[in-house]
Structures are given as structure tokens and as C-alpha cells.
Amino acid sequence: MGGRRIWSRRGGPATHDVGRSQQSLWRSLWPFLVVLAAGLLVAWTWHGWRGWRGWRGWYGRGGGGLDAGALIGAGSIVLLVLVLGRQALALRASRARYDRLNGSYGETVALNRELRAAWDELQAHNQALVEANAHALTLATTDPLTTLPNYRAIVAALDHELERAHRYNRPCAVLFLELDHVHVIGRPDGYGRPASEGSLHEFASLVRFSLRGVDILGHWAGEELVALLPETELAAALAAAEHVRASVAAHPFSSADGAHLTCSIGVAAYPHDGVDRPALVDAAGRAAHAATRLGRNQARAAGEPAVAALEGGASLRDEAGLTGAVELLASLVEARDRYTGRHTQEVAALTVRLALALGCDAGQARLISLAGRLHDVGKVAIPDAVLQKSGRLSAEEWALIRLYPGVGADVVGRVPALRAVGPMVRLHHERWDGTGYPGRLAGEAIPLGARVIAVADAYGAMTTKRPYREAYAPALALRELRRCAGTQFDPAVVAALERVLVADPTLTGGEGVA
Fold first, then answer.
1. What is the DSSP letter of 228?
2. How big is the chain by its Cα radius of gyration, in Å?
3. Are 350 and 493 in contact (CB under 8 A)?
4. DSSP secondary structure string, 117-130?
5. Can the peptide bond before residue 416 be classed as cis, meaning omega within 30 degrees of 0?
6. Domains located in the chain, CATH noted
7. Minimal CA–CA distance to 340: which of 396, 278, 293, 387?
8. How many H helices and E strands in the chain?
9. Could you give the CA distance from residue 315 to residue 67 in angstroms, rounded to a whole number?
């Protein structure tokens, strides 16, 4: 081949392949050679039989020759030997091919086994890589102390939800939550840093449990959490914030030896308080800081006048003075009757929930709550013998009792900042059907705040144990309020109370109201 070198598929010289191809060529020509040889033998035999037939005498005289039959027999034997040889060679070649195929099959099986092992190993490496990536992503987006989404994750969630709210013109709200006095717990002379961190973890878990499943809670910084409430108006956000506040205040923190901690919450709603994430979170944060400065353990909306006053650098005297005046007046009643003091606190907490459920804004709900806190302040003018009497009251005693709403309104009205709550205090014993006192007003002629206080006052009185009777179960008290709706109470306020009690089982001590 002129010195040309043939290389096999594996890269080496192809001498083996050339020899193997020559053998295959001869084996493919062998059948034709056998047929040719057989044909020549027959022709030779036939020619010899005809040609030698004339010479038979001479041939016979020479000592006896082969006749035609012998020649044909010999040719047949030779042909048979050739055919059998051909078959033997074919069988040998088939056996060789079978061995080669069997060897190739074994190599294929072994190679497939190796490929399968390599594939399994690759899958295991891929799975480990996926798990490592997931773990890295979790570490990158989760706060290790609270196990909540960290700052980066909550910022991304806020941006995504605000973009959706803007695109589809949907509401949402942000809660900014601060755990009060947690730095005091963490001081060396307090419970120590582990207790502080444990309290923050408990706080995060408690808030997460108090919110809806669709709400997103994240760790913002320090003892601050931020909650995103999709599809939530301001009133619903304030109700949610109040529910969280009450849950935290009622929880004994095991990390602080069962101590009760509180939180301050700021509420901001899109788009009223901000149209982007920085503005909305800043508004909620300012409201939370205002709640802290105004006494802690409360929820404040970003749009409240007190928050705006603090933002403008105004003195705290107005708000603090208002709060101080309310607590001073309420303490006068509590000093006379401890039940009344505790009862007015419960009424104040329930009235704000009812006002928000009825669609009142934060400012109006706040005024109704103040009126609820002060609705019994006029009882300071009632003699103890009447106020503490456990039996049936006489007509003269009832006349004294009916004077206390007016007395309370007059007392409250002497505080300029509380003049707006005076009518609610004066008229909270009016009845929906117009048979109440002191003005016999009916229906919506009665201020909404007075109607709300009437329902909250009755519910609180029925569910509290008194010296002359046991406390009603929440379901029984609600059933009584439904029975009197339309006559003594505003049906809309009773319906709002039922919604609030169903939505927040903590108000009924876990008992159902169905």
C-alpha cells in the first residue's frame, strides 16, 4: 500500500484488522470454489467415461481399469468431503463469531454496569449539591435567632407585594413591632443575654402564631419585627395589631422566668401612608416609636394626630396629659370599686375592636375606647351603700344610679381634650327602641360610640362573676345580646361583637360562641 499505515479505531496499527479482512475474503469465496471444483469433477468424469469407452479393450487388456460408475462414485465422495469440509469451516466460523459476540456482550454488560454506577454517583452528587444550595439559600434568607425571614428576605417580600398591590390596585398594610424592655432583660443585673435572645425568639413565634397564614413576618433589626399583611385595609390591620398586642401581653415568657412582656406596634397602610417600601416601613416605624414614647403596650396608626405631633417635634404634654387624665379619672372609680376599674379596662379594649370592626377609623376608634374606659367614672358620686349593694335596689336607689352617666359626662367634659367623649359617656344607657335614659333617644340618634359601649358594657358585665350571681359563659352572653338586639342594643354592633369573638378566641378564653 505504498508505505501507507492503517490505524484502527483505537489508534493503533491495523495489521490485525487486515489479516482478519483477508480471512473473511477467502471464506466468502470458498463456496464458489467448492461448486467450481464439483463441476470440474463431474465434467472430467463424464468426459472420461465417453472417451475411455473405446479404449476399454486396450485398457482392460492392460490389467483392468476404472469404469464409469467407479469414477462417479469417487467424484461423489470427493464432493461430499468438500461439502462437509465447507460445513465444518462454516460451523467453526459461526462459533468464532458467537464467541466474539458473546465477548462483546460481556464487555457491553460490564460497561453498562460501570455507566450505571457512574450515573448513580452523579445523581448522588447532584442531590447533595441541590441540598447544599437549598441550605445555603436558607442561611442567606433566614435569621438564625428568630428563624424568621431576615432583613434581605422581608425587603424582597415587601417589594414584591407592593408591586402587586400597585399593579392590581389592591390594599396591604405593614406592622412594625418592638418588644418592650427587652434590653433590660438582657442586662447583666437582669436575666442576661440568653434570656433576652430567648424572649425575642418567643416573641417572634407568638407573633407568627397570632397572624394569618398569608401574612409574612420577618426580623428587621434588633428587637424589631416587620409584618406584611396582604389584602388588608387599615382598620383590619389595626385589629390584627391589637390582637397581637393582647396575645403578647397575656403570654408568660419562659425565657424570663414567666415574666409578662409587652410590645409596641406601628401600623401603616398602602397607599394612604406610603406608596413604596421605604416610605411605608418608615411610617410604620415612626408609629411604633410613638407608641413606645406614649407608654408602650399599644398599637398606633401612622396617621394618628399624636404620631404626627411627635414627628413634628411637638411636646408630649398633650398626649401624655390626655392619657394621664384618663387614667387619673379611671383610678378614682377603681379606688371605690375594684371590679369597676377592671371592668372599664375590659370595656375599653373591646370597644376599640368593635369600632374597628364597624369601619371606624383609628382616631374615632381611639375616642370610643377612651369613652369606654371612662363610661363608669360618674359612679364616684354614688354612695358605697348603693354601689356595693348585692340585693334588689329600691326606686330611690335606681334614681341615683340613673344619674351617674350625666355626672360622668360632666366630669369628663371639664378636660378640654376629652370633651368629644362626653356624649358617649352620658348616653351609653340609651336603648335602641327609645326606652333608655337619660334622653330616651332611639336608633341612630344615639351616638355610635354610646351604642358600642352599651354592647361591650353588657357583655363584660354578664361574663364577669359578681357577688349575687355566677359569670355567664361567652356563648350564653352572646345569645342574650342577640335576643335583645333591635330593642335594647344596636343589631349591627351585636353582629360586630359576634364577628370579633369568632375571629379571636382569646377574648372568650378559648370557649366557643356558637
1. E
2. 51
3. no
4. HHHHHHHHHHHHHH
5. no
6. 1-51+68-139 (no CATH), 142-314 (3.30.70.270), 321-514 (1.10.3210.10)
7. 387
8. 19, 7
9. 149
Q: Are the C-beta atoms of residues 418 and 372 closer than 8 Å to each other?
A: no
Please say whether the beta carbons of 156 and 222 come within 8 A. Answer: no
Those residues with Cβ within 8 angstroms of residue 90's Cβ, 6 or more apart along the chain or in another chain: none
- Residues in contact with 238: Cβ distance below 8 Å, sequence separation at least 6, in sequence order: 267, 299, 301, 356, 362, 365
Contact by Cβ (8 Å): 223, 178: yes
Q: Which residues contact 327 (CB under 8 A, 6 or more apart)?
A: none
- Using CA atoms, how far apart are residues 389 and 469, in angstroms rounded to an integer? 13
Distance CA 498, CA 307 (A): 31
pTM of the predicted protein model: 0.46
Give the HSE-up count for residue 28: Cα atoms under 13 Å, Cβ half-sphere: 6
Question: 10 Å Cβ neighbour count for 156?
Answer: 14
Kindly indicate the confidence band of residue 418, based on its pLDDT and cuts at 50, 70 and 90: confident
| Separation between Cα atoms, residue 182 and residue 260, nearest integer Å | 11
Pick from 317, 319, 277, 281: nearest CA to 302: 281
DSSP structure string for 238-305? HHHHHHHHHHHHH-EEGGGTTEE--EEEEEEEETTT-SSHHHHHHHHHHHHHHHHHTTSS-EEETTSH
Confidence of residue 62 (pLDDT cuts 50, 70, 90): very low
CB neighbour list of residue 279: distance below 8 Å, 6 or more residues apart? 273
Residue 353's nearest CA partner among 510, 498, 203, 173 is 498
Rounded distance between C-alpha atoms, residue 428 and residue 493, angstroms: 13
Assign 60 a pLDDT band (cuts: 50, 70, 90). Answer: very low
Q: Is 434 in contact with 342 (CB distance < 8 Å)?
A: no
